[in-house]
């Protein structure tokens, strides 16, 4: 997904345009794809799918992710893995801080092309839901997969990736994020996760 930031001929995404807050052709096309032509308030899907998208989106919200992170950290601490518990807590809370700082620095507004099907107030880029859900669920998936067989490990990681992708897509479906903002969240997550992994391998994973 980081390739989405590279400019290319033919109207692709350009990081300069993103930073300037300009609407991008691929962003607009993706938002319009999910709406009924001539009635942009109406998603191009059964009514239940819009409700399902809202429920999936909630899994990437601050409340759910904070609760999941806190309960996981407490469990690890009780199990005697205090360094790992601290690593999980700091990686997720640090990801939230990085996401907030990036939003302020970029200052990109929410999409206005289509009506929002969910309430939003903060800035758009990068998508906090996309970044923080990736940080949280992929970190937990990596922890849960340790010491398991190849098939089970693959299934756990695949579930974490699927959940992360569904949350990102739900934000675009509901019209509250440009696809480039979701891709930006995933790219920021990749950089943050790599940094956390390097620190964690040295200080937390073996304790």
Q: How many E strands?
A: 2
Query: What Rg, in angstroms, do the CA atoms define?
Result: 18 Å
> In order across it, which strands form the biggest sheet?
1-2
The biggest sheet, with number of strands, parallel, antiparallel or mixed sense and barrel status, is:
2 strands, antiparallel
Give an overview of the whole structure.
A two-stranded antiparallel sheet has the order 1-2. Helix 6 runs parallel beside helix 8 (179-203). The chain is built from eight helices and two strands. The chain has helices spanning 15-20, 25-33, 47-58, 62-78, 82-106, 128-145, 150-173, 179-203, and strands at residues 35-36, 39-43. Helices cover 66% and strands 3% of the residues. A hairpin with a 2-residue loop joins strand 1 and strand 2 (39-43). The chain is mostly helical and 207 residues long. Mean pLDDT is 75; it is low at 1-13.
Short summary of the structure?
66% of the residues lie in helices and 3% in strands.
Can you lay out the helices and strands and say which pair or pack?
Blueprint: H1 15-20, H2 25-33, E1 35-36, E2 39-43, H3 47-58, H4 62-78, H5 82-106, H6 128-145, H7 150-173, H8 179-203
Characteristics:
single chain, disordered N terminus, 8 helices, globular, mainly alpha, 207 residues, two-stranded antiparallel sheet
